[in-house]
Specification:
Number of strands: 11
Largest sheet: 7 strands, mixed
Structural class: mainly beta
Number of helices: 0
Helix content: under 10%
Radius of gyration: 14 Å
Strand content: over 45%
Length: 119
């Protein structure tokens, strides 16, 4: 079974930056069978898409983070990153990494990492 571990969350002031990491095991993020993504769940709200990246490098972003967040990956480290700049209080959420198998459409999740944007 795919295992995913997120890290890099924390408390940051508005306007600050954080970089989240997502390391996968028992699968290769470079595989054409998997699309990787970051999601978040703000307090009291449903989980929402933040950004995705395909094995070919195609990226998509939620409108709310375009121009501020960047998803990338390092195949050698089997790690996906989410660089978050110009953070706002409304970015406060638990951030989850996801690996979607495009053949079976199954999805594996990490345990999440808390990001809090507050002065």
């Amino acid at each position: 079974q795919v295992q995913i571990v997120e890290s890099g969350g924390g408390l940051v002031q508005p306007g600050g930056s954080l970089r989240l990491s997502c390391t996968a095991s028992r699968m290769r993020i470079s595989s054409s069978f998997y699309h990787m993504g970051w999601y978040r769940q703000p307090p009291g709200k449903e989980r929402e898409l933040v950004a995705t990246i395909t094995s070919g490098g195609t990226t998509t972003y939620a409108d709310s983070v375009k121009g501020r967040f960047t998803i990338s990956r390092d195949n050698a480290k089997n790690t996906v990153y989410l660089q978050m700049n110009s953070l706002k209080p409304e970015d406060t959420a638990v951030y989850y990494c996801s690996a979607r198998n495009v053949l079976s459409n199954s999805r594996d999740w990490g345990q999440g990492t808390q990001v809090t944007v507050s002065s």
